[in-house]
Structures are given as C-alpha cells and as structure tokens.
Amino acid sequence: MLVNAMMLPLVVLSVLLAVTPTIAVWPVPRQYSTGTTPLRLSPSFSIKLSGIDHAPRDLVDAVARTSSYLRKDKLQALVPDRGASSAKVIRGAKSLSSLTVSLTTKGKVRSISEEAIEDVESRVEGYTLTIPADGSAASLRANSTLGLFRGLTTFGQLWYDWDGTTYTLEAPFDIVDSPAYPYRGLMLDTARNYFPVADIKRTLDAMSWVKINTLHWHVVDSQSFPLVVPGFTELSKNGAYSASQVYTPGDVKEIVQYAAARGIDVMAEIDTPGHTSIIAKSHPEHIACFEASPWTQFANEPPAGQLRLASEATTNFTTSLLKAAASMFPSTLFSTGGDELNANCYDKDAATQADLASQKKTLEQALDTFTQVTHSGLREVGKRAVVWEEMVIEHDVTLANDTIALVWISSEHVAAVAQKGHKLIHAASDFFYLDCGGGGWVGQNVLGNSWCDPFKTWQKSYSFNPTANLTEEQSKLVLGGQHLLWTEQSGPANLDPVVWPRAASSAELFWSGPGGDVGEALPRLHDLSFRFVQRGVNAIPLQPTWCALHPGMCDLHA
Amino acid sequence: MLVNAMMLPLVVLSVLLAVTPTIAVWPVPRQYSTGTTPLRLSPSFSIKLSGIDHAPRDLVDAVARTSSYLRKDKLQALVPDRGASSAKVIRGAKSLSSLTVSLTTKGKVRSISEEAIEDVESRVEGYTLTIPADGSAASLRANSTLGLFRGLTTFGQLWYDWDGTTYTLEAPFDIVDSPAYPYRGLMLDTARNYFPVADIKRTLDAMSWVKINTLHWHVVDSQSFPLVVPGFTELSKNGAYSASQVYTPGDVKEIVQYAAARGIDVMAEIDTPGHTSIIAKSHPEHIACFEASPWTQFANEPPAGQLRLASEATTNFTTSLLKAAASMFPSTLFSTGGDELNANCYDKDAATQADLASQKKTLEQALDTFTQVTHSGLREVGKRAVVWEEMVIEHDVTLANDTIALVWISSEHVAAVAQKGHKLIHAASDFFYLDCGGGGWVGQNVLGNSWCDPFKTWQKSYSFNPTANLTEEQSKLVLGGQHLLWTEQSGPANLDPVVWPRAASSAELFWSGPGGDVGEALPRLHDLSFRFVQRGVNAIPLQPTWCALHPGMCDLHA
C-alpha cells in the first residue's frame, strides 16, 4: 500500500486505513508504503554508518540512543491482547540484522548540531528509509546528517515488544519523508515559574521524538530574570527567584548543545519593552510604572513595569543587553518580543513624558526608534529579529524585511500579518496555547476562568489550516508553527502532562502538512503517548485504556 | 490574636489577616491563636507519647513520620527573600525540645486504624495543640488516637527552614480543632485508566496531610475490572487491562491498612447495574447491549453494557459479587453506584424484555427488586449502602433509611435529594469534578470539549455552600463532601497535578467549614503546594512564583 498521507482525499484515505494497520510513526511520513509481513529485530541487530568518514560525534550518539530505545522501549502493541495472539507469527518471523545509514552527498560531513542551527529556511531534514521484508539490511539515506537523524527517529518508532522480541507486523517499509514547513517549534516560558535544566533537556528529547526543530525559549519576563547574561549579571542576581533558580552561561551552553545534537535550534526571547518589570530590581532608572497599582491599569499581568523606551540611556542599555544575551545562543533567530505594550504606563510615567516632550516625539515614534536601535544591535551580532504580532499590525514601527512575526492573539490576525509581507510563525492562542482551560489564576477572583477558554485539545490544533484566508503568494510567508506553554500555572510538577502529547499535534501538522484526519491520527497518537511514558516522559492518556486498545470504538459515531 | 476563622465576619477577618501572618496550616484550624515570637526546633527535638500504655503501632509510626517531615521538608518561607532577612532572629530564637502527646480519655487505647474505619458519623477527630513561646514543651491532646494523628499533621505544617534551622516566627500557638463535617473524601476511578498501588499510596499520604478521611474508590467500571474478587477471579482475569494491572486481595489489604493508619477509610464502589459492560467478558449472560453500536444510544460512554437487572440469575450473581467484594474492605460503607442507567439498552434487550414480561414488571419495578436484593446482601455483610443521586431522585426504588446519596450531576439537585430524607455527600460536577475543562476525549470530535466545562478552580470549590437551599433540618443530612477524579484523561502520568492542590480546597471546606475567603486562603494554599512538592507529591503551582512570594499582589484588585 502506498500512501501519500496528506494528498489523498479523506474518504479514500479512511477506506485504506480501515483495512490495514497504519504506520505507527508520529509525525506520519509524507510518503510511505507498508506491507503485512512480520519481521523482528535480531538480538544482534546493529545500526551501521556506511561511508561516512569521520562521523560526527552527535551522529554516533544518535545511533547509540536509537539502539537504546529499540532495546528499552518495550512498548506492547495497542490491541486488546497486547500482541499475545501474534506470538507464534512473531517467533516465526525473519530477523533484521542491520540498518545501514549513509549520506547521499559527497564532501565534508557536517554534524547534526551544525545543520540544526542553520537558518530556518535552508535546513535539510528529508530522508529515505527502506526496510525489506526478507531480513536483508535496511537502509537509511539522506542528504544531511540532520536528515539521517530524522530517519533514525522514524526507525525507532516502528517496533513493538512481545515477550522480549522487538517486532513489526508491517514489513516491508518504504518511506520518503521531508517536512512540509521548515519551522516546527515549542515555546516554553521559564520566567513565571522556573524549570531546572533537567526538565528542559527531557523536553528537548521529547521534542526530537516528534521532529520539532525549534525551542522558542521565553526565558525572562516581568516576574523573574533567571538568565545570567555576561556583563549584566546584576539582572539575574536581583531578579531570579533564588540563587539556584538561574540559567548560567554554562547551563545555556549545555542546553543549546543538547538541543542541537537532537536537531533543535534554540530561539531565545528577551521580551521588550513590556514584560520587563523585574529589571527594576537592579536598574530602577530604566523601568516605568514599576509594580504600579492597580496592576490591571498598567499591565496585563502583575507586576507592572516596562522599559522607558523614550530614554536614550534605556535604549542603549537594552541594546547592549540584547546583544549580550543573543550572543549566548548560536541560533540565527532571536526574539525581542514586543507584545502587550501598555500605553497608560507611559502616560503616567513622568520620565517618559519628559523624554517624549524633549524629543518632540509621540510614543509610537519613540517605539519606532527604540525598535530600530535594538534590532540593529541584534543584526550586528548576526541575528534575525523575531517579534510578536503587535509589532507588525498594531504599531507603526520600521522592521527589516526579514523580521519574522509570531501570530499569537488570534488565528484571525494571520491574514493581516501576512498582508504586511513578513514571514510568520503560527502561534495563535485559539489553537496552540497549552495553558488555556486551566482556570483563572489571579487571586480574589472566585469565578475567574482561563482568558483563552476552552482547553485547546490536540484535535483542535490538529485541525488548523496554516493557509486559511491567505493568497497563494501570502501562503509562502508561513514558516510553520508551534504550541506554547505560558507557565502561570505550570512548573516542573506538571510540565510533561500539560505539554504531551498535545504539542505533538502541531509537530505533525507542520511536518506532514495539514488536512490530516483525527480518526486516523488518534491510534498513532496513543502509540506515541504510550511510547513517551516508556521513555520517561509523562504524556497523559488521551482516553481510557480501553479506547486505546479498541481503535475507533470510542469515536463519536462508533 | 485569637481567631475562630470561620465565625468572624469577613471584613473583620481580612483586617486581622492584613496585619499578621496567618497560620500556615491547611485545613485552617477551627479555633486558634498565634503570636509573634520566633521559635526553633532543637536539633534534639523529639515527640514523646505520654501515658499511652501499649501505644498502637500506627501511632508510633505516625510520630516517626511527623519527625521525618520536620527534618526533611526543608520548606522555605514564601517571602521574597525566603527567610534570609530573618536569619538573625531565627538564630537567636528559643528552642523547642519536645512535643508531648497524650490521650485525654482513660481505658483501652484503640489504634488510629481502628478509629479510622468506624462509622462515619461516630468518628472522633478533634485535638488540642499548644506550643508555648518560651521553649517549654509543646502539648498535643485528644480523646482519640485519630485525633492525635490529626494534631500531629497540624504540627508538621507549622515550620519553615532557613539554612538548616527549622523555625516559626509565630509562637505561641494555641489550637483547638475538630472537623465541621464527618465525611471528607476524594474519589478515584481506577477503571478508565489503571493506577499502580504506589500511586494510590502516595495519594493517601497526600490526603492525610489535608485531613481527608475517606478514599471513595471507584475501582471497576465498563472499561476494565481490575479488582481480583475471591470467588469471582474470572472477572479480573478477563476484564483487567493486563495481568499486572489488577488489585489483588493482598493489594487491597495493603491499601486499606495504609489508608487506615493515616486516618482514612476506604469506601469501595462496584457500580451497578450500569457501568458493567466488562463483566460480559466472562459472563455474557448477565449483560444487556454489550458493546452495542452506536454507543451513544446505549450508554453515556463506550463501551455499552448493563447488568440484566430483571434476571433473577443476574440479580443473584450481582448480590454474591457485591458481598464478596464488600467483604474485602473493612469500611462500614460500600457504594453500589446506580448512576446513568440507560433505558434504551433494556428496551432493545430481548432477554430483559422477556424477563419483564414473565414477571409482569415495569423496568422501574425490576430495578426496585434488584436494588432491594443487592442491598440486603450488603447489609448481611455489615455494610451501609451508598448510591449516586439518581437512585434517590430519578428512580422509584426502596432504599433503607440509612442509605447515603452522592449528589453528582448538579449542586442544584441537593435540595431534592435532601427532600427524600437521606444523608448526603456533596460531589457535584459543577464544583468538585477534577476532570472538567480538560477537553473532549471522544474520538472523531474535532471541536468537542469537556461536558462539564469550565475547569473547576480551587476558588470555585472553596466557595461552595454545603447548606445552600436547605432547611435547618435538611442541613443535618449533609455528611460532607469530596472532589472526584474520573480518569478518561488521567493516569499515573498526571494524577498528582490534576488532583493537587485543588482537592485540598474541599478538604478545608468540609473540615474548617464554609465561608472562608479565597484571598486569605491563597497564601496558605501556596504553602501547602510547595510543601507537597517537598514531600514528593507533584502539586501544581497555582500562580507564578512571584505571586506566591508576594501575597496579595496578584489579586484582581491589587
């Protein structure tokens, strides 16, 4: 059966899927065929790098990790008897002894880590994976080590365990795969609540299993400043929740390298000029309306406080800070934020009003200057700026053509952002916010609920159309998209269950392309969740186990 | 300062609380005073049982656990500097060397475990705790070992850590405490998804920390039958998710004893006649509309299937099963369920129609017979029946006067249930369902959301009035209440974060009494959440850490 999953009309697809088991890979490969022959991994199964001179260390490590997952996943098939009735077939199956991994290009071999941090628009992530049914060697080929890594990830998800035997019932496999969109991210806020490095690394592993290629790290905010920035260490010293709740340059390096070795670029964000209250703990001169009350008049969340954007000193301070922070990260991308600017804060700030008067500028003109100066500082250190949508559609500021916009307030704003001609990343609260539906967190608000209710189910984000309301030309501006976790009510205690497996739905949407059917996807997503748990990531059950073991029988019209 | 927390008008209370730190105990004691003198625990601090001959093993163990928490909690105060500015005061504080624990009654000393499983209406849980400010011995007294256990729990929550010193800034303490309601529960469904014994034991520990005294264990349902019932082992053999996902009689004994030693009674439930599909795997003759399609016409959830209540053989089978299952649990209470009976299932079941015709009974009359027979079986083994509200207000069945009703569909049904004269437990979905707001879980339902949206915040459940719309006489029927976790989308991966700290809000409501102010409660609830995390229970953060460290500053009107 040859399935180009996202190209077939849904009706045809569902008929095909009703008669054969689907491939247990998430995101689903863009083109694949499977068979019905059982095949098991030989006890001496090995992954061999072929013809790769001086194989990069991260590729060798990725091979070792894949081998380890094959040995340790011990995931039983999600059928009522978990595989027992196939025991005889499995025992009698041919054995696969090896997977041969090779590059299809000549020349200097680059590491996964080098390729992962290339500009988002020029990464090469495709691969071809062939697994014959007769036990002869399987083959993984790609034009890049990053592509080989994606293929190894796929290979690691094809197998189940029964009684110590690692098997599939669906050989042969022929897979030709590459992503529909170049940007597939996950945003994590480490400022409202702090996450130890170990939590971030575990999250990076999980992200890599679903081929997410960017960690959008919203590292600081008004509530805390955990990033230790060389030259600006007073910010974290006075602004972190505690001396141990920080990310040192060594921590950042560890995280960035860990991510890159797993095909993930780290796009950091220092949100400006809003969301900066905590800077006042060490630089009160740069912050307007610091902890002003009632906070509802000065900020969207407590505590209030914004950079004095009309001040030349503050603009220079911010530029230096952004350059120093951005230089800690090898990514070509860096986000300067720009969301939720509160005009009343500046109206009531005497220093800002004096600056505006002396410069004969409006607030918008001052914001334009602030943005141009800070962004050109970033360009000096080789970064391409990323901003939240307000900077494109709410404010009248000059942005470089290559500036990327994150659409967050509503998916209905996508067309307006595209209209401005900037590349964009889907991050809309109505589809991709992982924190929605968790109840209100503001104090003394008995009946308060989540501002972006209801909870965004995986089905909802999976149903998103990345080019809705866009012209064909505008559609080319879409780089991809991501789920986002704002952490007002999340911390290490609930990181995994809030994120997984939901964030996998955007990972597939932007890898495999839109138009997937939630009914076809659900059994694969169960598979993924169970596999995550086997690997130590606390993905939640999406349904009663009974439903996971009886595909389709818990569907609405079943 | 003497505070009888729930009796004071809110205005007076909030003024008092604005000027002094509140007691960091959850649930808040019903009567207490605190001071402003620092006091620390001596490195040689010990808890001494005084005049308790042959002290029960579980009391000795509880003392040891309390001592262990005092040593290991290492909870820093939730203030911006986490206690640093109090370091000098703490170092200079007087030391408390001992807590003397004694019973105020004479006669045979009963164990906590014996007292915990007494009839819900006759348990004695009150205690008096006095901690002088001058370092002289503290004193805990009660009429029961169960009361002493509650007092030890309180003692364990009064202390913070700074740099290895365990201290309070609020001595002396005078606490006189006892619960407002005798039933304070938590319901856990182990049928939709299975929870290992270790998860249940960890949950029991957490429950005991907030003085919850009943685990309502919804142990089996249509999806799986994990309970190994002596004489009916075929049910779990064919109905558990796997051979290892069961609760053996040994597991049950372990759980029951673990619970009782922590002051918790285990009220088990075998839901009948609905929610029993899985029984057909071993006894197809007893189940109507087994896995009938479309399930929406035969059950509220897949898979469909209900006990053939009009069949004498099925009635006898059910009675024997209930007696055997109930005999595994020492509690005086046992729930036979009775919710969500589907009439269409019986209308379409030829066997049931034939039984009804031959007996010349309506379905309601057959249900009455079924209920009377099964309940009298339970009485034979010493159990008092508990049922869901439909059995009281939707059906015309004969129930013993002492039958207890669980009100779940809506808090608006409480008055109707009380009207029938039965004792009742608050368990309403609009206040106490922990699973609401998590999105729809049924397959092929892209925009489906939680049927009981929105998410029930702790503030919402905390604001519940247990006697709303009840006469004074009817109010006496209220035994208490509980949070409930139905586990369609929960498993070991997210048990703690879904339950905690939210379930603590009903624990306080039904111990301390209603009328508490969420603004006063929030800092204590932060304290509790942070302490839970220190003790290994993954309670979620309710707010950004900044808010936890700045009480009141994230309130709506701050």
Summarize the structure.
The structure is a homodimer of 558-residue chains. Chain A has 21 helices and 19 strands.
Structure description:
The structure is a homodimer of 558-residue chains. The first copy, chain A, is of the alpha/beta class and 558 residues long. Chain A has 2 domains: 176 residues, Chitobiase, domain 2 (2-Layer Sandwich); 278 residues, TIM Barrel, CATH 3.20.20. In chain A, 34% of the residues lie in helices and 18% in strands. In chain A, the strands form 3 sheets. Chain A has a 9-stranded mixed sheet. In chain A, strand 16, helix 13 and strand 17 form a beta-alpha-beta unit. In chain A, helix 9 runs parallel beside helix 12.
Give the count of helical stretches of chain A. 21
Average pLDDT level of chain A: 95
CATH topology of the largest domain in chain A: TIM Barrel
- Read across the widest sheet of chain A, the strand sequence of neighbours is 1-2-9-5-6-4-3-8-7
CATH-wise, what's the superfamily of the largest domain in chain A? Answer: Glycosidases
Q: Overall 3D geometry of chain A?
A: elongated
Using only C-alpha atoms, the radius of gyration of chain A works out to 25 Å
Largest interface: A-B, 75 and 75 residues
* Sheet with most strands of chain A: 9 strands, mixed
Level of helix content of chain A? 25-40%
Q: Structurally, how many domains make up the residues of chain A?
A: 2
Distance between the termini of chain A: 26 Å
Oligomer state equals homodimer
**What CATH architecture of the largest domain in chain A do you see?**
Alpha-Beta Barrel
* Poorly predicted runs of 5 or more residues of chain A: 1-21
Strand content of chain A: 15-25%
CATH class of the largest domain in chain A: Alpha Beta
Number of strands of chain A: 19
Secondary-structure-derived class of chain A: alpha/beta
Keywords (chains A, B): Glycoprotein, Glycosidase, Hydrolase, Signal
Catalytic activity (chains A, B): Hydrolysis of terminal non-reducing N-acetyl-D-hexosamine residues in N-acetyl-beta-D-hexosaminides
GO molecular function, one term (chains A, B): beta-N-acetylhexosaminidase activity
Pfam family, one (chains A, B): Glycohydro_20b2
